Amino acid sequence: MDPNQTLRDVVTILGGALGVAALVLSLANYFRDRPRLRISLQFDMEGYGGLADSGTWLVASLANTGRRPIFVSHVGLCRASYWKRYRKDKALTLLETAEGRRLQEGDPPWTVPGKQDETVTSYVNRSGKVRAFASDSAGKTYYSRPARPK
Asked: In the 8-state DSSP scheme, what is residue 147?
């Protein structure tokens, strides 16, 4: 057996293994390095301090848990059913988010308050449970878990 042939076989196997390992690492980095938006929705919050008047408020909190910055264009409420994505339906947009906002990695959560008035209450009563949603500048929509006022 030729020693050069054995060395060539070892180098070939080592090169193939390192190529596969590099592919796996680059795919892991690709899926890890993307924006992720976590949204939570809370109803029946009491306003005080900086809020203009007292009353009942709803609050949507948005946090970028990914590694890339994300620009949120608007935040609103929609029906909680999964079929909402496949049909045109009305949604309520929270006016606080008219200008949008950029969320970096590690930024504190963006809290978006909304007045829980009769418009929101009637929308929730017609829809059952609702979700908060946020749309980014790339066109992707993120949803919160379903919630309902008490």
From this structure: B
Spell out the alpha helix ranges (H) of the chain.
Answer: 3-32, 118-127
Assign 50 to helix, strand or coil: coil
| CA-atom Rg of the chain in angstroms | 24
pTM of the model: 0.73
Confidence of residue 49 (pLDDT cuts 50, 70, 90): low
CA 74 – CA 145 distance, rounded (Å)? 18
CA distance to 5, 96, 140, per residue, from 71 (Å): 56, 15, 11
Q: Which residue has the tokens 């829980």?
A: 116
Q: What does the pLDDT look like over 77-102, one tens digit per residue? A: 887 765 555 555 677 787 666 788 89
